[in-house]
Amino acid sequence: QLTGQLLSDRLSREAFERARAVIPGGVNSPVRAFLAVGGAPRFIARASGPYLYDIDGNELVDLICSWGPMLLGHAHPEVLAAVGAAAEHGTSYGAPTLAEVELAEAIIERAPVEQVRLVNSGTEATMSVLRLARGITGRDMIVKFAGCYHGHVDSLLASAGSGVATLAIPGTPGVTAATTADTIVLSYNDRTGVREAFARYGDRIAAVITEAAAGNMGVIPPGVEDGIGFNAFLADICREHGALFISDEVMTGFRVTRTGQYGIDGVQPDLMTFGKVMGGGFPAAAFGGRAELMQQLAPVGGIYQAGTLSGNPVATAAGLATLRLATPEVYAHVDAISAQLQAEVGAALSAAGVPHVIQAAGNLFSVFFVAGVTAVPDYATAATQSTQAYAAFFHSMLEQGVYLPPSAYEGWFLSAAHDDGAMNRIVSALPAAARAAAQA
Ligand code: PMP
Questions:
Q1: Does ipTM come in above 0.90?
Q2: Which residue among 251, 272, 309 has the greatest number of ligand 1 atoms within 8 angstroms of its CB, and so is best to mutate?
Q3: Which of 9, 54, 149, 379 is catalytic?
Q4: Global pTM exceeds 0.90
């Protein structure tokens, strides 16, 4: 067992060179490339419980958990058994299975939806749910919030235009201005902006989509004003204007509580998206809502949506096993170690004199290296953080065997498998990492 000093990362560096020749940037999803923190990413050979093992043989405490899915930790024996048993019966049929029904039932039992459709990624879920919302309402416009990520759906890869309630501009080359002209990007937690947008475009807005709690600009929970949470506010204003309220629980669903962010604020959306935990580490995601809305989908309704591998039997088995094993004890454990880690991180940063704000949505939290504020309500504030301080903190933690998200804008993910050994490794690495951040 390694503690402290790691072995070299020579093999990872070599692998990264080889990867860059055949895969753009050497990675299949940009954040993995360490661009925000510098250096070469670790190539992973295997994972077990709370640990990743890179190809140089380093054992790293994993605080990414595959960006959320691995709520039970890596290679959980019962999940592996379910996966193995499913795979032995064939890996894809292109025909319905009972397991898909069971997974749909497991989701419906937890989240406030009456029907779901299974898809393969969070991106597919949000893309499909927007089509459904537009098809149902006969309207074109979508409201989203700056810093909320809903996958790489064209119309959602948009940046705010100048001023509130203006039409968005493409957030990346390859997305047309015509596509984002139907997207309005507002500031998260900004009710005035939302009111203004509805005042101006109320009869053209098909839906408001939001992360149930923002987790892709660091963690920013929905704010409460006069006793009314931001999600409840959004649900109300959508209802007033005949728009649909879409809660994206891809990240929070079945993670921040058994019932996701819904378990925290109890707001009933019209439509929802899910992913990550419900796939147990396989490509599975879903969208759902009231039956009358979901019935508008093909083959009952006219709004088309489909997928060769949707409801894949192996992914479905992994998801079902994961949800079944995600007992109240699992959530209680993750909640407790999350609270412990938040306190330890805060203490270490304070001791080193590093300005910071720690925010959480249930057990999902992140650390903002911001100065001069006590809370981070939106992307503009999140963007004031010192990414240099984060990079120094990140690399010190990595050198001490702790694998944090390689970006200051990400949540820290824990699992049921993070035991005392893993937690002690993290906690003992914090003081040196905090000092590194202070010097950055
Ligand atoms: N919505 C949210 C809230 C997410 O966090 C993500 C992924 N991080 C997505 C959608 C997209 O999911 P995927 O990466 O599976 O396409």
A1: yes
A2: 251
A3: 149
A4: yes
